């Protein structure tokens, strides 16, 4: 470690990546600050174990109230924290929700990134603070080539992707125009047991666990053929840090280089808990039935576990996203550690554990909270 | 009678488009930002400021309710979104406002159209600045967008949002990727008009010297009346699309300045290099152009030249004026205005 302790500020620290990154940086000896939005519901479940008792000396992890839609709050926190590294992970990060709330998505994801960059400039931190912007494979949208790399032209197809693309370009602009050390990490999908429950991977593992324990009948999904390049969030946050430790800032694609369909994800997750699925029917009428089930209290053969719901089909689907992370591999010496199967298993195991806990709590007559903290 | 709503009606393109649409029997609603300084000089010069079918209504791009109100009050058939903070260099000073006006406001319009009347046709005035530092020239509709300025990034946001609403909801949304287009109605903050206005003032003995930034910057300069005509044609086509509008020829600022001085009967000669480059009036020997490094942009877009083959094929569109005639028209207008004591 350098003599002086480094200071990092993370927006979106209460989310999946924020939680992994905070933990990673604390392990590296950083003083870590996080920005959280005020809510009347606890939203710090993923980082509870990191929060230091304020009565103990020298807390290295601190949360601040601020919001990407509020410039003054960002300026205030940045002025106070004076970070060496700023990771902008906060966003309205759900593609489908961006069709419902396009304006809010733009305000948070596009304007929000710009507000942070402007705060750095206004506070005279252009030479001090290194900036990481969480870009996304959704920028490629209707991709012109496969796999996608840093030079692949973008063609965003959702309000989320359009907003994120603005943030991507404005980050490059502040690097070029003002010499800010700023990087875009174009991350392909990355999952973990901490993934939000509305994202398809977590939705699948959570539902299958609950179905297996009889807490739920069936799960409704969208396009089973959609293919994604799924990595593990824990692997990807290391990458985010590495990007800010180089001699020169740059943009990197982070991906596993393998794509799998939603259907494969479902089959693999089901197999982990002893269920073999059989698919029947076509188009929106397709269903997934239990072919066989092993273990205690097995599910009945033939019962329907998976149905399709047209509401979950995206207005304009991004069909196949597959990343080529050669540049990150060559320049940063990075490669993903977790295999797809292991990722699915880890998520499935964690959700099965949570569902068991819920059964146990219910079995003792207590209301089970839906939120696993 | 068809109704067209134009945002940014008091600007160069807005006023030219209004005139074109009024000539074609449209009712024109101009959505304009309220200001205590009169900004109707373009409408006056075009002779349409009192046209019976032109209505100006106060409107601000940052007011989401304003869009909905305009749609409900006037039921336009066509909306031309020409408003927005349109200066690249100002976008470095006001990046947030630039994105709100040039980007976020477009989303509000698209949302309002989708919800209130999806039959409304929408045109987004996009910009060649979206190409940024293109790897190849000329650029066309398939050239990747790599904006390098806050203005370019905001315009790219609006462009993709328009294309996204076309793909996702089937809205009739066109994006016109326009290269620089000039006329005597150009605002003086743009380099061409700044040059022609200064040349007129120098010619009339009211200014000594014209200060410019990078003289090597090259631009594809077209004639603004041609471009608004293309916009109108896009909106009459069977299907909505993205079109590049350009002349396909790039000219340096140095060359444009020479043409402008020549149009005012002043022959100039350049000497020196870099920041010390100057131009002198051959006859009098006076220095008439000097370089001001403050006018250099932090990031400069190079080799922006457009290929308008699609517009040519699908819309039968052609640029009608060579640059020296555009420039001469601008200088003539500025000589006339300055001689009359008007500063517009």
Describe the overall structure:
Chain A has helices at 16-27, 71-81, 95-100, 102-122, 159-178, 200-212, 233-243, 262-272, 326-332, 340-363, and strands spanning 7-11, 31-36, 61-65, 85-88, 130-136, 182-187, 190-191, 219-221, 227-228, 231-232, 252-254, 260-261, 275-280, 287-293, 304-308. Chain A is of the alpha/beta class. In chain A, the strands form four sheets. Chain A has a seven-stranded parallel β-sheet with strand order 3-2-1-4-5-6-11, with helices on both faces. A four-stranded mixed β-sheet of chain A has the order 8-15-14-13. In chain A, helix 1 crosses helix 7 (233-243) and helix 8 (262-272) crosses helix 10 (340-363). Chain A starts with 6 loop residues before the first strand and ends in a 10-residue tail after the last helix. With 344 residues, chain B is α/β, with parallel strands linked by helices. In chain B, the strands form four sheets. In chain B, strands 3-2-1-4-5-6-11 form a seven-stranded parallel β-sheet, sandwiched between helices. In chain B, strands 8-15-14-13 form a four-stranded mixed β-sheet. In chain B, a hairpin with a 5-residue loop joins strand 14 (278-281) and strand 15. The longest helix of chain B is centred in the N-terminal third of the chain and has 22 residues, at 95-116. Chain B is globular. The model of chain B has no long low-confidence stretch (mean pLDDT 94). The interface between A and B is medium-sized, with 31 and 31 residues.
At a glance:
The complex is a heterodimer of chains A (373) and B (344). With 373 residues, chain A is of the alpha/beta class. Chain A is built from ten helices and 15 strands.
Helix-strand blueprint:
The complex is a heterodimer of chains A (373) and B (344).
Chain A: E1 7-11, H1 16-27, E2 31-36, E3 61-65, H2 71-81, E4 85-88, H3 95-100, H4 102-122, E5 130-136, H5 159-178, E6 182-187, E7 190-191, H6 200-212, E8 219-221, E9 227-228, E10 231-232, H7 233-243, E11 252-254, E12 260-261, H8 262-272, E13 275-280, E14 287-293, E15 304-308, H9 326-332, H10 340-363
Parallel strand pairs in A: 1-2, 1-4, 2-3, 4-5, 5-6, 6-11, 7-10, 8-15
Antiparallel strand pairs in A: 9-12, 13-14, 14-15
Chain B: E1 3-7, H1 12-23, E2 27-32, H2 41-46, E3 54-58, H3 64-74, E4 78-81, H4 88-93, H5 95-116, E5 121-127, H6 150-169, E6 172-178, E7 181-182, H7 191-203, E8 210-212, E9 218-219, E10 222-223, H8 224-236, E11 242-245, E12 251-252, H9 253-263, E13 268-271, E14 278-281, E15 287-291, H10 309-315, H11 323-339
Parallel strand pairs in B: 1-2, 1-4, 2-3, 4-5, 5-6, 6-11, 7-10, 8-15
Antiparallel strand pairs in B: 9-12, 13-14, 14-15
């Amino acid at each position: 470690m350098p003599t002086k302790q480094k200071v990092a500020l993370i927006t979106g620290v209460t989310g999946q990546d924020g939680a992994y990154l905070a933990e990673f940086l604390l392990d590296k000896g950083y003083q870590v600050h996080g920005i959280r939005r005020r809510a009347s519901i606890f939203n710090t479940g993923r980082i509870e174990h990191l929060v230091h008792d304020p009565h103990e000396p020298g807390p290295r992890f601190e949360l601040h109230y601020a919001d990407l839609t509020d410039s003054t709050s960002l300026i205030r926190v940045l002025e106070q924290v004076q970070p060496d590294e700023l990771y902008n992970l906060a966003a309205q990060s759900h593609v489908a929700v961006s069709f419902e709330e396009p304006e809010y998505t733009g305000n948070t994801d596009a304007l929000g990134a710009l507000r942070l960059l402007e705060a750095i400039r206004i506070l005279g931190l252009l030479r001090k603070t290194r900036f990481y912007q969480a870009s996304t494979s959704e920028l490629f949208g209707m991709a012109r080539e496969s796999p996608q790399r840093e030079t692949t032209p973008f063609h965003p197809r959702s309000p989320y992707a359009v907003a994120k693309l603005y943030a991507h370009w404005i980050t490059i602009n502040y690097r070029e125009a003002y010499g800010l050390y700023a990087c875009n990490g174009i991350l392909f999908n990355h999952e973990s047991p901490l993934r939000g429950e509305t994202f398809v991977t977590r939705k699948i593992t959570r539902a299958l666990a609950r179905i297996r324990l009889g807490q739920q009948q069936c799960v409704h999904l969208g396009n089973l053929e959609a293919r994604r390049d799924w990595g593990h969030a824990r692997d990807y946050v290391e990458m985010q840090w590495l990007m800010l430790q180089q001699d020169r800032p740059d943009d990197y694609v982070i991906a596993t280089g393998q794509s799998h369909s939603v259907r494969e994800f479902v089959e693999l997750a089901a197999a982990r808990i002893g269920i073999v699925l059989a698919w029947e029917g076509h188009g929106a009428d397709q269903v997934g039935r239990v072919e066989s089930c092993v273990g205690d209290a097995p599910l009945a053969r033939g019962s329907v576990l998976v149905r399709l719901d047209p509401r979950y089909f995206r207005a304009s689907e991004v069909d196949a996203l597959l990343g080529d992370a050669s540049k990150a591999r060559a320049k940063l010496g990075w490669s993903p550690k977790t295999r797809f199967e292991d990722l699915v298993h880890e998520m499935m195991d964690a959700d099965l554990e949570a569902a068991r806990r819920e059964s146990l709590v219910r079995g003792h007559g207590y209301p089970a909270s839906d939120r696993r903290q | 009678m068809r109704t067209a709503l134009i945002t940014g009606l008091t600007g160069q393109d807005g006023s030219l488009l209004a005139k074109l649409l009024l000539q074609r029997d449209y009712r024109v609603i101009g959505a304009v930002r309220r200001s205590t300084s009169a900004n109707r000089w373009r409408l006056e010069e075009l002779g349409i400021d009192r046209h019976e079918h032109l209505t100006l209504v106060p409107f601000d791009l940052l007011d989401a309710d304003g869009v909905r109100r305009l749609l409900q009050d006037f039921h336009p058939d066509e909306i031309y979104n020409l408003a927005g903070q349109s200066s690249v260099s100002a976008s470095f000073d006001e990046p947030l406002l630039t994105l709100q006006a040039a980007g976020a406001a477009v989303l509000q319009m698209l949302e309002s159209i989708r919800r209130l009347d999806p039959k409304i046709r929408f045109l987004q005035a996009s910009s060649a600045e979206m190409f940024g530092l293109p790897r190849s020239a000329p650029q066309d509709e398939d050239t990747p967008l790599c904006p390098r300025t806050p203005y370019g990034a905001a315009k790219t946001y609006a462009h993709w949002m328009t294309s996204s609403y076309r793909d996702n909801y089937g809205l009739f949304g066109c994006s016109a990727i326009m290269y620089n287009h000039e006329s005597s109605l150009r605002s003086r903050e743009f380099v061409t008009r700044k040059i022609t206005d200064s040349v007129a003032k120098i010619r009339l003995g009211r200014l000594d010297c014209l200060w410019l930034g990078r003289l090597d910057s090259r631009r594809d300069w077209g004639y603004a009346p041609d471009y608004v005509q293309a916009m109108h044609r896009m909106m009459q086509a069977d299907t909505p699309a993205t079109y590049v509008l350009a002349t396909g020829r790039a000219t340096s600022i140095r060359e444009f300045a020479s043409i402008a001085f020549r149009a005012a009967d002043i022959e100039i000669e350049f000497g020196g290099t870099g920041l010390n480059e100057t131009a002198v009036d051959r006859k009098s020997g006076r220095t008439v152009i000097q370089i001001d490094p403050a006018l250099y942009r932090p990031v400069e877009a190079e080799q922006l030249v457009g290929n308008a083959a699609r517009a040519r094929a699908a819309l039968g569109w052609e640029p009608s004026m060579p640059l020296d005639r555009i420039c001469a028209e601008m200088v003539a207008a500025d000589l006339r205005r300055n001689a009359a004591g008007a500063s517009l």
